[in-house]
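ERR on first pass: missing label on line 2. Operator R.T. fixed the label and resubmitted. Corrected input:
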Amino acid sequence: MPRAVREQQMLDAAVRIFGQRGYRAASMDEIADVAGVSKPLVYLYLNSKEELFTACIRREAAALVAAVRAGVSGGEGGGGVRGGLPADRQLWAGLQAFFTHTAERPDAWVVLHNQARTQGEPFAAEVAVMREEIVAFVTSLIAEAAREAHRKPELAEREVAGLAQALVGAAESLAGWANGDASVSAKEAAATLMNFAWAGLGELMEGRRWVP
Amino acid sequence: MPRAVREQQMLDAAVRIFGQRGYRAASMDEIADVAGVSKPLVYLYLNSKEELFTACIRREAAALVAAVRAGVSGGEGGGGVRGGLPADRQLWAGLQAFFTHTAERPDAWVVLHNQARTQGEPFAAEVAVMREEIVAFVTSLIAEAAREAHRKPELAEREVAGLAQALVGAAESLAGWANGDASVSAKEAAATLMNFAWAGLGELMEGRRWVP
Amino acid sequence: MPRAVREQQMLDAAVRIFGQRGYRAASMDEIADVAGVSKPLVYLYLNSKEELFTACIRREAAALVAAVRAGVSGGEGGGGVRGGLPADRQLWAGLQAFFTHTAERPDAWVVLHNQARTQGEPFAAEVAVMREEIVAFVTSLIAEAAREAHRKPELAEREVAGLAQALVGAAESLAGWANGDASVSAKEAAATLMNFAWAGLGELMEGRRWVP
Amino acid sequence: MPRAVREQQMLDAAVRIFGQRGYRAASMDEIADVAGVSKPLVYLYLNSKEELFTACIRREAAALVAAVRAGVSGGEGGGGVRGGLPADRQLWAGLQAFFTHTAERPDAWVVLHNQARTQGEPFAAEVAVMREEIVAFVTSLIAEAAREAHRKPELAEREVAGLAQALVGAAESLAGWANGDASVSAKEAAATLMNFAWAGLGELMEGRRWVP
DNA sequence: GATGAATGAGCCTTCATTCAT
DNA sequence: AATGAATGAAGGCTCATTCAT
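pass 2 clean. output:
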């Protein structure tokens, strides 16, 4: 069996075990078992527990970003009208893709969101890169929406950044919730968040704020 | 030294170490050291690592809920006019209390939010109880707000629940963000979230929704 | 059982196993077994294989130097005439003590001479210190002998150093030989070397050299 | 590439690695790498780590003995006057050859002297054979020297054996010393030992002994 | 003839946990 | 009430060794 295939099997197993047990509690023995190979082979290909975990993070981060990108580009119309979608449709498509992907690979999401971020520096930095990529994308969407609405730039740049953080944070949180509670589909989660967020953003763009 | 005091010292130490190292990486040796007692004494009082961790979770969960409750009840006017505050003021007070408390006890927040939820079943259930309590409270606030606005109950119960989840999730996410990034105060975090959320909720109560 | 005693037992066992198997081939498991304790206790007291080996080297080096010193000081006459012995008697006493000690503790000698010196830098340096101490002592003896013989200092300092090296080297080598081949007693080994060396030194002090 | 050549390359690599790392710490992987072949090929030709090590010992022992023999036979005059050299010239030639050879192949010397002798029985015996051959040769030289001096055989056979042991031991020790300390050439080492030894031997042949 | 792929076994190290005092 | 002393069990990692090709 070629090396590349075996490596993917190992990463599959590792993501599963890391997701279920946590980084520390996961044992290389169990990972090798689940991958259907011997432990030395895991070391031969991936060198150490640390590198194995890093490889998992990288693969899953790339897969998630790719999924969201594909969702946004593909849009709703089926790939024809590329790039021309309005900001709200792009956000909607991105959220759907995000919730779908995380629902399909719950262990991967746990690894990225819950495990990697709580295991200290070599790993946290790895996910931080991906997250910033997504935050930047959302930020650009909000800014574009403001432009589309032909408003004077009522929203300061710093404020937009804060809103993007809140939106991404809410999405992350809902992903965990939707996965944990089986009765919520990806589409429902996306709709809930879209409703919650888009209306709020619209109001803010009108300059209406809540003050104590 | 009375037993109750010693126990609190141990829990203090445990929360700190669990928060900094994670459940698995934390060693009973270090906890006993930091607590200034011998290891067997820790076992005498708290039986096992698992029970010790559970005790930490319970204590900190109770403290957090109590802080939020106190914030809401105390309100802005100083404790006199109980229960009479409008829903938005109550939410505002609760958010402020939440962000303040988590900022004051970062290790405790890490234990509750990052560690307990990722260490499997005995522990995840423990925090889930507390979280549900808070979600229920937020849900009641949203419902009350709808009543105050004298609308027909346009918002289905299920929908309200989803919104509460999103709001709580966003708050949790922002708490981590605010603690990690020193430049954001509790009040700022609360204001960001309040702006984001209240406008959206208001719109929804008016029956305006985003549809694809 | 008090800690100090246990530590000596562990060192006894370690010296034996390191001597018989070599540093790498010796297993902490076997050492713990032979010491009659569990492996974690060995780690609790001596931290690591490396530190354990270093502790062995230090203890045995000190013991060997002490034995030689005691032999020289005690002299043949029984401790009365301290310090006044002529150089040849001192050398004779030192050699006897050296061969006696190495014969009594063959594993310790193997550890010092064969193992420690071939396991790279943390360890080699440790024995080098002891060896230099002995070489310095022998050097001073040769120089004193030259003075006693009322010769002009025919022997250059560098030459004396080389002779000391050769003498110590010969002694080290004979120690291994005498221990390996049971029919040679410590006294015989000392006599052989004394005969071999003292005559040669005497000749050299007379200025007689072998030239091709 | 013919098998014999490949085998020599492997032995070259093995001697180097065994010498630098020690028997246990040397890995078959590294040896195969350095030899420029794959690991299974090493096993195909040399069967096991143990046999590989044994093969190294045998080859290097034979090479060393051959070098010394050649030095003695070749003598100073260039190979013409075989066998006629006096004993001291033969010893001088042998020592020079010995120190030259060990200086040229330091790893080989480490393998023979430091590693093989400390790795237990299969290997120690292998070098012992070679050493005895050399000791026997030196013994015969001393005896011949005594004859040449026309003395009655004052030196008992047992005594001669002891002296040969001491001389060989001193040479072994000086070899390590000279290789480790770069400032000593083969010729210097040989001269130091020759001076030290021949005078002592001469004295003994005259019947002058050191007595306590 | 030669090797890429794979593994059983073992070693160093750590940790939660328990007695005897 | 409190602890010094001690351990069973497990985990990360490496290595000599073997097939199928």
